[in-house]
Specification:
Elements lengths: L15 E5 L3 H12 L3 E5 L11 E4 L2 E4 L8 H10 L10 E3 L4 E5 L4 E4 L3 H11 L3 H24 L12 H7 L8 H6 L5 H8 L18 H9 L2 E3 L2 H15 L3 E3 L4 E7 L2 E6 L2 E5 L1 E4 L3 H8 L9 H5 L6 E10 L8 E5 L4 H8 L10 E4 L13 E10 L7 H19 L7 E7 L1 H8 L31 E3 L10 H19 L2
Parallel strand pairs: 1-2, 1-13, 2-9, 6-15, 13-19
Antiparallel strand pairs: 3-4, 5-8, 6-7, 10-11, 11-12, 14-17, 14-18, 15-16, 16-17
Length: about 500
């Protein structure tokens, strides 16, 4: 059952819940459970709330350290709407135009705007008939999105038997479950650059064109039809808005309080932290699933052994440069991608033969193009993100070498030379993800969306070993990304209410 659509007054009055971790999944779960009457406390390891959506502030610059694309605005509207609120009660949105710009490393560049006809004309320049193909592709993507969201994302189906349902079979006929995104996109577009434009959103799912199911063509509907937005004060502003609403619902927060162990079961949990312990009837973990199982639970309480976690395919980690720069950085857009003409080698160096990519594909975010408050006057705020394989060694010498490689690559392929204008610089990489977020192998996102790690093949929201212990966030269904984590929080809260609601 869904809390948002329940016809029965099921509540958790006088029940206590500890939520471990304050990422979007944890914040979402906390809101739904508090709304259901529970006494909710969120315990966060770091000094900021928001998990990977942290904020870095230095010398007048403000950087979103994690997610920076505000996609799927309908999910945020639905989330806030459950509580009788709207996103604009907490932050304003600006629709970005252009959506993003792509620099190809052969000297070509493409700007994708909010004007569909303009984009179709751009596609036609590369391949006759590609404009009409784009319309057809996006029509299918919209259908996939509408069916997939309502029947397979908002409706949680954590077990295979949940799919043995006439309603599922009726709606599943409109979806492409099998095959890869690479094969699916090739059915519509021959030109490799057009294929890349249709596939770049796979970075948000932690996959590659070869290992991500064709089902995720729905991301093109998100990109082209729903549009790209920028929230007031960035993604950190979204975190602040959800935290404000959480407090209005009665949620309490403890920061700088790392959880060291979770003991007990329903009605009698003891959550040990670095500065004491909390008692709770139920526990929800938004910490990385693998960390919770391997480090916070005693062996007899674990669902999966170490071999299970070693056998998983993880989404990429990232090499990140946060840069405060003198002057402007034209012609970079708010969202800019720099892509090799053939990016297969880069994906292979993430998923097949892990290595630092010699010719990387990467993303540049320049929020100062939209928001004057993120940088001092006369300066630009920029971060560079290179997806890399999780688990790579990222010692100081490697970081220094790669920092120079990235800055050289930006200058060569975009014409923007940052090297002598940097006044603030911070780096973040594999070991930082592991240390700051207890992230297995330093993955930046969680479990990749491969065919073998989608839907019921992802770890569940309920612990099968400990009654009253639940999980939320990007390792569970529906998966990776801020909107998916918000929905994951609803699924987790639904499970608690279904199991223990009065």
């Amino acid at each position: 059952m869904s809390l948002a659509h329940s016809d029965t007054d099921m509540n958790l009055a006088d029940r206590s819940v500890v939520v471990v971790g304050s990422g979007f999944g944890g914040l979402s779960t906390a809101c739904y459970l508090a709304d259901a009457g529970a006494d909710v406390t969120v315990v966060e390891k770091n000094d900021q709330l928001g998990g990977r959506a942290s904020v870095l502030e230095r010398d007048g610059f403000r950087f979103d350290m994690g997610p920076s694309w505000y996609l799927m605005p309908d999910v945020f509207e639905r989330f806030f709407g459950h509580f009788g609120r709207r996103p604009d009660d907490y932050y304003e949105l600006e629709h970005l135009d252009p959506h993003y710009k792509i620099f190809f490393k052969d000297g070509d560049d493409v700007t994708v705007t909010a004007d569909r006809e303009e984009t179709k004309a751009t596609f036609e320049e590369y391949e006759p008939g590609a404009g009409a193909a784009l319309d057809a592709y996006l029509e299918e993507a919209e259908e996939t999105y509408e069916i997939g969201m309502e029947h397979f994302v908002y409706t949680d189906r954590p077990r295979f038997r949940d799919y043995v349902d006439l309603d599922v079979f009726r709606h599943a006929r409109g979806l492409t479950f099998l095959g890869s995104m690479q094969g699916h996109v090739e059915e519509y577009f021959d030109h490799p650059k057009l294929q890349q434009i249709m596939q770049y959103t796979l970075v948000f799912l932690g996959g590659s064109p070869k290992n991500t199911p064709a089902l995720y063509n729905l991301m093109s509907h998100v990109d082209f039809n729903l549009g790209v937005h920028y929230p007031e004060e960035g993604m950190g502003g979204v975190v602040d808005g959800i935290v404000e609403m959480s407090r209005e619902l009665g949620v309490e927060f403890r920061t700088d309080s790392e959880v060291e162990s979770i003991l007990g079961s329903a009605g009698n949990f003891r959550v040990e932290t670095a500065d004491g312990f909390l008692r709770a009837d139920f526990v929800v973990s938004d910490a990385d699933y693998a960390h919770t199982e391997q480090e916070l639970l005693p062996p007899q309480s674990r669902q999966y052994d170490a071999d299970y976690w070693k056998s998983r395919t993880y989404a990429p980690s990232a090499f990140l440069l946060y840069l405060g720069v003198e002057g402007d950085v034209d012609p970079l857009a708010h969202h800019t991608l720099v892509l090799p003409s053939d990016w297969n080698d880069h994906f292979d160096e993430i998923f097949e033969a892990p290595a630092w990519p010699d010719d990387p594909a990467y993303y540049l975010c320049v929020p100062s193009e939209t928001d004057d408050s993120v940088a001092p006057e006369g300066h630009s705020n920029l971060f560079a993100l290179v997806p890399i394989a999780p688990g790579l060694d990222d010692g100081p010498a490697t970081r220094e070498r790669y920092r120079d490689l990235v800055l050289d690559d930006i200058a060569e392929n975009t014409g923007v030379d940052l090297r002598d204008r940097i006044v603030v610089e911070e780096r973040f990489c594999v070991s930082d993800f592991a240390d700051r977020y207890n992230s297995i192998e330093g993955t930046a996102l969680g479990l990749a969306h491969t065919l073998r790690q989608t839907g019921p093949l992802r770890p569940g929201h309920r612990s099968s070993e400990v009654p009253g212990l639940y999980f939320t966030g990007s390792f569970t269904t529906p998966g990776i990304g801020v909107p998916m984590c918000l929905i994951s929080g609803q699924h987790t809260a639904d499970a608690v209410v279904e199991d223990y609601g009065e």
